[in-house]
């Protein structure tokens, strides 16, 4: 059977993407234990993963998922409000609420679904949403989908946010939306100042702890816990697909908020529930995160070592950041792709990030350190990076 003919503009647009050096090709990976992966027959040290605590391949999570898989089968078979919410979904929501120190929690099939659905449910045409310019695409898309007036601010200069909050009049809601840890920069949102502004101007503050859950805070609840502002935040969203090592998103909060979300958020109401086996694995992961805080300590030690070493290089730019996300700014997308390819040849997989994911002129290698990486892994990476930089990047 032949394929239908598509409009010529598709080919034209693809060519524009290729000409700009921004064409994205699909690759197939096999995850391996120990922070490794297999690509085209080559075993690579994986420095592009968000599995910060090295839990995705943990035997205890695999055993929990296997047991639930045998008992419950593969899929949830329906949306949560129809018949897809099993005892494992209930257990995970209860465990998340306990872990987050909240009254209740609600699950979503992905962090993207949580962000998109919650923002678009909270905000409407008579409201104003204030969105950090570095927020994840799912938050930005949620702001746009809501139909609310959109105001963009920079978290490193909150004066504009303050001025925009002062301008808003009327009965519409004011909603400040931010990541806690910005995924492409590794920088942290100024949550204390944002809480102050939200309280002064009677705004709702919504934060996404996607890269904070399991990593930041005394017990791993996120940056809000680290900074002592959890109970000043109206809506806290988290993800299970990064440090927790599984998949899905969630919101933790008051029982009233969670009940409202159950009845209003379309991405939850109309999505098939998470597989029960995933919920079982996530329950096990939450227990490990609480029982083994040394995972976070080692993670930060490794990340601090690598960041300090990289900051000594004069031919790259390392923005101020904290935690396991370390961006190496190379500016030019072609150079970025070339360095990433040479690192792969040397046995290291790093994320090569180009526009439109990041602004023009800020193409970068996004390095993610995990608990699985050893000091030797990172030293070897630095040597391979230095060789590639010497060939491709001039000193600045």
From TrEMBL:
Keywords: Acyltransferase, Biotin biosynthesis, Pyridoxal phosphate, Transferase
Any one GO molecular function term: 8-amino-7-oxononanoate synthase activity
Listed pathway(s): Cofactor biosynthesis; biotin biosynthesis
Gene Ontology BP, a term: biotin biosynthetic process
Protein's UniProt keywords contain Cytoplasm: no
Gene3D superfamilies from the UniProt entry: Aspartate Aminotransferase, domain 1 (3.90.1150.10), Type I PLP-dependent aspartate aminotransferase-like (Major domain) (3.40.640.10)
Family indicated by similarity: Belongs to the class-II pyridoxal-phosphate-dependent aminotransferase family. BioF subfamily.
Function description: Catalyzes the decarboxylative condensation of pimeloyl-[acyl-carrier protein] and L-alanine to produce 8-amino-7-oxononanoate (AON), [acyl-carrier protein], and carbon dioxide.
EC number(s) given by UniProt: 2.3.1.47
Highest classification ranks of the organism: Bacteria, Pseudomonadati, Planctomycetota, Planctomycetia, Planctomycetales
Residue(s) carrying N6-(pyridoxal phosphate)lysine: 242
Cofactor(s) it depends on: pyridoxal 5'-phosphate
Class of this enzyme: transferase
Record's protein name: 8-amino-7-ketopelargonate synthase
Ranges for domain Aminotransferase class I/classII large: 44-385
Xref: Pfam families: Aminotran_1_2
Domain of life: Bacteria
InterPro entries recorded: Aminotrans_II_pyridoxalP_BS, Aminotransferase_I/II_large, AON_synthase_class-II, AONS_Archaea/Proteobacteria, PyrdxlP-dep_Trfase, PyrdxlP-dep_Trfase_major, PyrdxlP-dep_Trfase_small
Catalysed reactions, as listed in the record: 6-carboxyhexanoyl-[ACP] + L-alanine + H(+) = (8S)-8-amino-7-oxononanoate + holo-[ACP] + CO2
Subunit structure: Homodimer.
Species the sequence originates in: Gimesia alba
